[in-house]
Write a structure and sequence with these properties.
The protein is about 30% helix and about 30% strand. Helix 1 crosses helix 3. The longest helix is centred in the middle third of the chain and has 14 residues. The protein is elongated.
């Protein structure tokens, strides 16, 4: 299905922080995500430029979200996860042009 209404958010954090990042995202409207294990690699000069230190073990949290809540989730991840110090990570989003398998959220019907 072609879509202009979704984005994928990637939150790359030190190992052990992805579950906490998912909890923050859920509090801000995300319905779920996928956690991948990864290893970070970067030159020392680049790490100094970005002001972060890299640890080899990372986790990548991927979430497909509606565009309307993207900024809210990204801001919450940045502030609540203290990406520069505590989780030592980065969060960003990319557009999604096609998607398969998303189940629409059903709005509760009033029972009268």
């Amino acid at each position: 299905m072609t879509t202009n209404n979704h984005e994928v958010i990637f939150a790359i954090v030190d190992s052990g922080y992805a579950e906490e990042a998912m909890a923050v995202a859920r509090e801000n409207g995300a319905r779920g995500g996928t956690i991948l294990n990864a290893r970070g690699v970067i030159r020392e000069e680049a790490a100094a430029f970005f002001g972060i230190t890299l640890h080899a073990e990372k986790e990548i949290l991927m979430m497909v979200v509606e565009k309307t809540i993207r900024d809210q989730i990204l801001n919450a991840l940045y502030q609540q996860m203290d990406m520069a110090k505590k989780a030592k990570g980065i969060a960003f989003s990319l557009p999604v042009s096609d998607v398969a398998g998303l189940v629409p959220v059903e709005t509760p019907k009033n029972s009268e």
